[in-house]
Structures are given as structure tokens and as C-alpha cells.
């Protein structure tokens, strides 16, 4: 792995794709999609790599060693777990770790993917229970590392772009990734088990121990009639039931579980008997709340699964039996048996496992279709982008007698264009729905682990936006171009983004790409054709921002926001903004020649990821103030930088005396009103993303509601343009960022070229009152960066984000930086 991971990272870089994080594990076999097929490989050393590009999703990779688990965690409650996991897994956010900001996707619960090592398994249920307590609404899923041979040892690995020379390989613990934002994850489990014999009710049982049961003949029949289930059970099954009734003299004799299992087993076929002798599987009815009818039992086949309602029973293997009282005990904590709850005996076999998989996917498709009918206009559902398939190592060829059966069934249901990936694991686990729409029905979305099962996870954007179908597009483009190579611009592509004759990026607003416009009440908006692809990271950012604002408008139309903003500004405490540029100018004065640092609160950096384990805006703002900051920049963009409007409000509450520049991609007046109400004092307009008309228009509206106006430029052409437009700019922010891919040149080359240009000299000559600041890598690597050179030009200060936030403290004196 120490060779494989850097090789992948390097190869991707060669294609213009920057990989920020890699996590993975050894496995008992791998599953992956090539351009023409999906393959399952078992028993042979090989590697399966999955590259994911998840727009509008904030990822946080983490590693927890066994030794990092807190000693007292067994006594932990919800709050303690939340704090511990929030720190460990970067599940930070608003109150209680769940972000409560008004940004588009922040209200959605996160998803957590975990790969525990085999040695971590003993802590797994405990760890998952902690996760359930701390983040009940988060979807958790994952699989335990495996190995191809029993002689080899399992390993986990994690790579972070910021430590490119290291791929950390671990022999224990758990690696994982948290995903927040426009991502939806739908885990489903195939338990690989089929019910045999009748249905029973627990007479005496508690926790994970079942002592006595009674045959539930009448109720079982009634239920099937009630649920309109056709009695699909075989004639043999029916005969067996009758025989049982006869043998029992129609009585409902209460019997110890083991005694009943022994009696029932005798009536089974040879194969089923031999299975039951090796392993006693018991299915415990789901959704049973005690008292009357639980509503989750019944059905010997997979009728409920086919309906997309989830499994009727959660199947567990008996781990110990009371030889004296005939009781059985299931894995501790895996079930909580109640009196009156239904149970069944289960066996595993090939046909049953196949039937179950088919039922699972039929159910998924049925409920997905039903959801589209239930959705209100404007609402969107999960758009499948990929399916993760993780069978346990006892499945695959061992169970189905040939390789590839599991993915073949997924392909049949979802088509070949959707990539499938995964591996053979030592166990799987996932959150399971209580409502049941394809998953296993369970108690309040708990995370259940399975020693033998197939975990299938549909992953895609929750906004339902179009998904790039690599396989489909590659083949159709090849066809179009007579079998020629792929033509992909900009981001992750093989071609550079389009530029005009002056070298400026050509970006379009999303509407230009639109195929149709939809009218909904007073709001009209356009929908990007699914075929349109952004040609640069900036264009992609713009389109996503436009979609974000569309969605916000759907919930709260512009007219409302406008009147809310007016009402807000009527309140005396909100009538005036604080003068952001004024505060900077006031501190230049006699100290001119010095360089003023404006610290930026920023949660993450696009090509890097989260900058701090614990990002607390209030704490950070206070730190900056204590360090002498006279003004702040707060990044409120949630698409690229993980911020939110609430971050501005929080910073303002923490430091009421510090004026705030809202660092965001502003494309609409709507955003200006929202930013004003969040507590911003100034905004920045990105020159490359706005036409001259937009700049003027947005600038005027910003001023009309008291917001200071900065314009961000990264080329001399843009400087010349803003001078021509004559927009009243308070400050020019010279960005050192390349907007094609959002990289930052640590030498400051890009910003220095602009600062040294004739265009900039002309601009300052014409508008000497304008403050010139630099941004992007000003903290540099190892301190001063390109600051000294910038100071020699017209820059009087700089916005500093990553270096301060990531540094874990304010190191203001280093590299000549002073506040
Ligand atoms: O650069 C943009 O296009 C942009 C758009 C919307 C919000 C923020 C934007 N840029 C912010 C930055 O470039 C940096 O966060 C800021 O300059 C600090 O840089 P660094 O010190 O390198 O973290």
C-alpha cells in the first residue's frame, strides 16, 4: 500500500485530478467496475480503487486507534459521545454536532463510512452504539477489513494530501470518512437467510436471551391474509405446518427454544438439517413495540422486501445455549427481545440468498419509484451515482458457487452504467430504517452489524442533480468521435479550460446552459441540462451556487427576503453596518508601510479539506481579536469552503466590535440580503464570475443596504475592467488563486504579477482611495510567503485564512506578519 497509494495519487495528478484523501483496507476479494463490466475477484491478491468526486460535499477522513477510545466511554451518554466523536471525526458543526446553519445542505444529517480492522471488531458494537447516541440521524455504514489468506494480516490505510510522503498503514483501529452536504446514502442488507418452519411468539425472553416460545399458528395465517400476501410458501411448507399442528394436537405448547428447534429440524430436508446442526439462526421480528401487534412479522418469503418495506426479521446466530433450560442467547446487544415478539428459525442456502437479493433490489426500485410520485414539485430524491457492494467473505463463490452473482443482480436492477465497487469483508454494518424502504426494519435507525451478509449501498447526490455517467459518456463519446479519446475540460479532465484571447477563463452562468425553464408561482428558474459540464472549477462553483440560491428561493422567495431584510434594517441595532474598509484604513495611518493582516475564519480549503479538527467560529474570532485583528473575513460559502451564513452571525456575536467581510461567491442580490441579515458588513464580488453589468448592479445593491464592496481579481485584465466599469470599490482583493482548478501558488507569483502590472498602477492612480489587499497563501509555507514582495508593491494588507486556522493558534509575529 505504501507504493500503491502514492502511485494512484501521482497518476491522478497527471490527469489533473487532485486526491485529497484516501482510505481503505485489505480485503478478502475485491469488486470494481471497468469501462465495460463489473468484476468480483476472490482469492487473488489485487486492488480495487474507487475515485469519487462529490460536489458540495465536505469530507473528513479520520483514524481512531483502539487506544484512543476513552476508558470511561462505557459510561458515556449522548453528550460525552458527541463531544468525543465530534473531536475525533471532525463531525463539528452547530449545536450538538449537527449543523444548524441556513445553508442549503447543512440541515441534512451526515453519513459516516467506517472500515474497522479485525482487532477493532470487539469494540465495534460499542463504537457504533456511541455513534448512534451522538448522531442518531446520521447514516452509518461500513465493513470490517479482511484478507485473502488466513495466513496474512489485515491492514488499514489512510493518506492525506497534506502529508504526501506518508501513507499511514495501521494494523488496528478504524479508518473512516464523514460526508456532509449534497450526498445521500441508502444502505440495504441481504442477510442471506431464509425462514423455515412456522412463526413463534416469545413467551419468556429478555435482552438477547430467549427461553421459551409458542407456535403462532393462527396469527401467522391471519397476518398473511391481512397483508394480502399470497401464500407463496411451498406445498411442503404448508404440509409441514399441518403436520406440526397435528403433532401438537393444535395446542400451543410452550417449549424451550432448543427443544422446539430440535423437533422442527427433523421435519426439514437434509441440507437444511445439516445447516441447522452447524449454525442455529433465529430471526427476531422487527418493529415490535410490545403489547399488541408489532406489524413487522409474518411472511415466510421475501414479500415485504419485494415491496420495498424491508426485512421482517433481523437474523442472528445463536452464540450460546442453556443446556438445562433449553434457552438460547443471541449476540449481546444485537437484539432486545420482548415477550410476545415473533421469532423464526432460519437457514442459509444459495437459492434463498439469490431470491433475497432479487427481492431487495425489486423493493428498492419499487420504493424509489413510489417516492418520485410522492415528491412535491421542486423536491428531489437520491440520484444513484454508484452502488457499493460489500459481501462478507462467506458469500461470493462459497455461497453462490460461482463468482459475480451478487453484482450481476445489482447490474440487472440498476443497469451497467452505474459503477459498482466494494470488497469482501469480515463483517458489515449499517444504519437500518425504521420505516422500511428497502433496508432492514429496525428499532429507531440503530446501526446493526452482520457477520454474514451482503451490504449494498446506493450513493448519490440528495439534490437529485445530474450525475456524470463516466462509463456511459465515455462509450457514447467514443462512438461520436469514431472511437477517439475522451474530451473532458478543466476539472479532472484532459483539456485546459477555455480562455478568451486575453487569457481570461471563459465561464458561463448556468442559465446559458439551460435546456428549459420552469415556472413555479412567482419564481422562474432554469434547469441545467444534464449533459452540460462545467469547464473549470470556478464555473462549476458558479453553477452550484446558482442551484443553491434557486433552492433557497423556492423555500423563501426574494420578495420575502427583501421585506425581511427591510424589517431587519429598521431595528436600531441593525440600522448601520460596521465600516470594514474604514477599520483597515484607520490602522494603516502612520504605520503605513506595515502590513495589516485580516484573519479569515474558514472551515475548509477546496483542495485540502478541513483545516481544523475542531472548528469553532466564535473561539477562532475571539482568538483573532485577542491577537489584534481590526477586521475579520468570514467564509460563508458552503460549497467549496464548508462555511455557512450562521458562521457570520456567530463571529459577530463573539466579536461585536470587529467588522466582517463575507467571503462568498455572490451572484445574486438575494445573497446580498441574506448576508446583510446574517451580520456581514462588507462583501466581495469575484470579478471573473461576474459580467461588468453584474458587478455594477450587485455593487449598487450592496451599497444600498450598507455593505462595503470589495472586488476580487486574479489578473491584470480584470483590474483594467473594474477600472472601466467605474464601480465604487472600497477594496481590491488580489487573489493568488488559479480559478481553473482553485490551486494556490505558494510563491505568490499570480498575485505579484497583478500587483506589479501597469493596469494596477493605473487603477491606483485613478482611484487612490482604494485599499489593495492580497489573498490566497499569504501565510505561505513556513511563514512570510510572498508578503515582503507584495509590500513593496501597492498591497497594504492581506487576508489570511488557512495558515492561521490550520496552525491551531495565531502566530502573528512570524514572517514579519503583524496585526
Ligand atoms: O476565491 C474565490 O473565488 C472565493 C469565492 C467565494 C468565497 C471565497 C473565495 N475565496 C477565498 C479565498 O480565496 C481564501 O479563503 C482566502 O483568500 C484566504 O486564503 P488562505 O490564506 O490561503 O487560506
Automatic annotation (TrEMBL):
Residues 266-427 form the FIST C-domain domain. It catalyses: 1-(2-carboxyphenylamino)-1-deoxy-D-ribulose 5-phosphate + H(+) = (1S,2R)-1-C-(indol-3-yl)glycerol 3-phosphate + CO2 + H2O. The keyword Nucleus does not apply. Residues 538-752 form the Indole-3-glycerol phosphate synthase domain. Keywords: Amino-acid biosynthesis, Aromatic amino acid biosynthesis, Decarboxylase, Lyase, Tryptophan biosynthesis. Transmembrane segments: none annotated. Residues 482-493 have a biased composition (Gly residues). Pathway: Amino-acid biosynthesis; L-tryptophan biosynthesis; L-tryptophan from chorismate: step 4/5. Residues 20-213 form the FIST domain. Residues 466-503 are annotated as: Disordered. One of its GO terms (biological process) is L-tryptophan biosynthetic process. Its EC number is 4.1.1.48. The keyword rRNA-binding does not apply. Pfam families: FIST, FIST_C, IGPS. One of its GO terms (molecular function) is indole-3-glycerol-phosphate synthase activity. InterPro entries: Aldolase_TIM, FIST_C, FIST_domain_N, Indole-3-glycerol_P_synth, Indole-3-glycerol_P_synth_dom, RibuloseP-bd_barrel. This is indole-3-glycerol-phosphate synthase.
Amino acid at each position: 500500500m505504501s507504493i500503491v497509494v502514492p502511485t494512484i495519487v501521482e497518476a491522478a495528478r497527471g490527469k489533473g485530478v487532485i486526491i485529497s484523501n484516501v482510505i481503505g483496507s485489505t480485503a478478502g476479494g475485491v469488486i470494481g467496475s471497468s469501462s465495460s463490466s463489473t468484476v468480483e475477484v476472490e482469492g487473488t491478491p489485487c486492488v480495487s480503487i474507487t475515485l469519487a468526486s462529490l460536489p458540495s460535499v465536505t469530507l473528513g477522513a479520520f483514524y481512531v486507534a483502539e487506544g484512543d477510545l476513552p476508558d470511561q466511554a462505557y459510561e458515556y451518554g449522548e453528550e460525552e459521545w458527541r463531544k468525543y466523536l465530534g473531536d475525533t471525526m471532525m463531525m463539528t458543526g452547530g449545536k450538538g454536532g449537527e449543523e444548524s446553519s441556513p445553508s442549503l445542505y447543512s440541515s441534512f444529517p451526515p453519513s459516516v463510512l467506517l472500515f474497522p480492522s479485525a482487532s477493532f471488531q470487539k469494540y465495534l458494537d460499542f463504537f457504533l452504539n456511541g455513534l448512534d447516541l451522538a448522531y442518531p440521524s446520521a447514516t452509518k455504514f461500513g465493513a470490517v477489513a479482511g484478507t485473502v489468506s488466513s495466513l496474512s494480516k489485515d491492514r488499514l490505510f489512510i493518506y492525506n494530501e497534506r502529508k504526501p510522503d506518508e501513507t499511514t498503514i495501521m494494523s488496528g483501529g478504524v479508518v473512516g470518512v464523514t460526508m456532509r452536504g449534497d450526498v445521500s446514502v441508502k444502505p440495504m442488507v441481504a442477510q442471506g437467510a431464509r425462514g423455515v418452519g412456522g412463526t413463534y411468539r416469545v413467551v419468556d425472553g429478555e435482552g438477547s436471551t430467549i427461553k421459551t416460545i409458542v407456535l403462532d399458528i393462527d396469527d401467522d395465517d391471519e397476518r398473511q391474509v391481512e397483508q394480502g400476501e399470497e401464500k407463496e410458501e411451498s406445498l411442503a411448507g404448508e404440509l409441514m405446518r399441518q403436520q406440526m399442528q397435528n403433532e401438537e394436537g393444535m395446542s400451543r405448547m410452550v417449549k424451550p427454544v432448543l427443544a422446539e428447534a430440535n423437533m422442527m429440524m427433523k421435519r426439514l430436508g437434509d441440507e437444511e438439517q445439516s445447516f441447522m446442526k452447524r449454525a442455529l439462526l433465529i430471526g427476531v421480528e422487527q418493529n415490535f413495540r410490545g403489547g399488541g401487534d408489532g406489524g413487522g412479522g409474518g411472511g415466510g418469503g421475501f414479500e415485504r422486501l419485494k415491496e420495498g418495506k424491508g426485512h421482517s426479521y433481523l437474523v442472528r446466530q445463536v452464540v450460546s445455549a442453556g443446556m438445562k433450560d433449553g434457552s438460547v442467547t443471541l449476540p449481546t446487544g444485537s437484539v432486545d427481545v420482548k415477550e410476545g415478539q415473533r421469532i423464526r428459525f432460519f437457514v442459509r442456502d444459495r437459492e434463498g440468498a439469490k431470491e433475497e437479493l432479487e427481492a431487495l433490489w425489486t423493493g428498492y426500485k419499487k420504493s424509489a419509484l413510489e417516492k418520485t410520485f410522492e415528491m412535491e414539485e421542486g423536491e428531489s430524491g437520491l440520484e444513484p451515482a454508484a452502488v457499493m457492494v460489500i459481501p462478507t467473505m462467506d458469500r461470493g463463490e462459497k455461497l453462490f458457487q460461482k463468482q459475480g452473482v451478487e453484482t450481476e443482480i445489482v447490474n440487472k436492477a440498476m443497469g451497467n452504467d452505474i459503477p459498482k465497487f466494494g470488497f469482501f469483508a469480515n463483517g458489515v454494518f449499517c444504519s437500518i430504517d425504521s420505516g422500511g424502504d428497502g433496508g432492514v426494519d429496525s428499532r429507531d435507525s440503530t446501526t446493526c452489524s452482520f457477520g454474514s451478509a451482503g451490504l449494498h449501498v446506493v450513493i448519490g447526490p440528495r439534490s437529485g442533480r445530474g450525475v456524470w455517467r463516466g462509463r456511459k459518456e465515455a462509450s457514447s463519446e467514443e462512438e461520436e468521435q469514431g472511437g477517439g479519446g475522451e474530451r473532458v475540460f478543466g476539472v479532472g479532465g484532459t483539456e485546459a479550460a477555455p480562455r478568451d484571447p486575453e487569457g481570461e477563463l471563459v465561464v458561463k452562468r448556468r442559465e446559458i446552459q439551460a435546456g428549459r425553464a420552469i415556472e413555479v408561482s412567482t419564481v422562474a428558474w432554469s434547469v441545467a441540462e444534464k449533459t452540460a459540464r462545467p469547464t473549470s472549477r470556478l464555473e462549476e462553483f458558479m453553477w452550484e451556487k446558482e442551484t443553491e440560491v434557486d433552492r433557497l428561493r423556492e423555500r423563501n422567495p426574494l420578495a420575502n427576503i427583501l421585506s425581511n431584510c427591510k424589517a431587519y434594517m429598521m431595528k436600531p441595532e441593525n440600522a448601520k453596518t460596521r465600516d470594514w474598509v474604514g477599520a483597515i484604513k484607520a490602522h494603516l495611518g502612520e504605520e503605513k508601510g506595515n502590513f495589516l493582516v485580516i484573519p479569515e475564519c474558514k472551515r475548509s480549503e477546496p483542495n485540502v479539506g478541513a483545516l481544523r479538527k475542531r472548528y469553532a467560529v466564535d473561539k477562532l474570532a475571539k482568538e483573532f481579536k485577542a491577537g489584534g485583528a481590526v477586521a475579520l473575513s468570514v467564509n460563508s460559502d458552503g460549497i467549496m469552503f464548508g462555511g455557512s451564513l450562521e458562521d457570520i452571525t456567530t463571529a459577530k456575536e463573539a466579536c461585536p466590535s470587529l467588522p466582517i467581510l463575507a467571503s462568498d461567491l455572490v451572484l445574486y442580490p438575494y445573497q446580498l440580503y441574506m448576508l446583510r441579515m446574517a451580520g456581514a458588513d462588507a462583501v466581495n464580488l469575484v470579478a471573473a464570475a461576474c459580467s461588468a453589468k453584474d458587478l455594477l448592479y450587485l455593487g449598487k445593491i450592496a451599497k444600498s443596504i450598507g455593505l462595503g464592496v470589495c472586488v476580487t481579481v486574479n489578473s491584470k485584465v480584470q483590474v483594467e475592467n473594474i477600472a472601466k466599469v467605474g464601480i465604487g470599490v472600497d477594496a481590491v482583493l488580489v487573489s493568488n488563486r488559479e480559478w481553473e482548478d482553485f490551486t494556490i501558488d505558494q510563491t505568490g507569483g499570480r498575485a505579484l504579477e497583478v500587483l506589479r502590472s501597469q493596469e494596477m498602477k493605473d487603477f491606483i492612480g485613478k482611484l487612490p482611495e482604494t485599499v489593495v489587499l492580497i489573498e490566497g497563501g499569504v501565510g505561505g509555507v513556513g511563514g512570510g510567503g510572498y508578503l515582503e514582495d507584495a509590500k513593496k508593491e501597492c498591497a497594504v494588507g492581506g487576508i489570511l485564512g488557512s495558515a492561521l486556522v490550520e496552525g491551531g493558534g495565531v502566530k502573528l509575529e512570524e514572517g514579519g506578519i503583524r496585526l
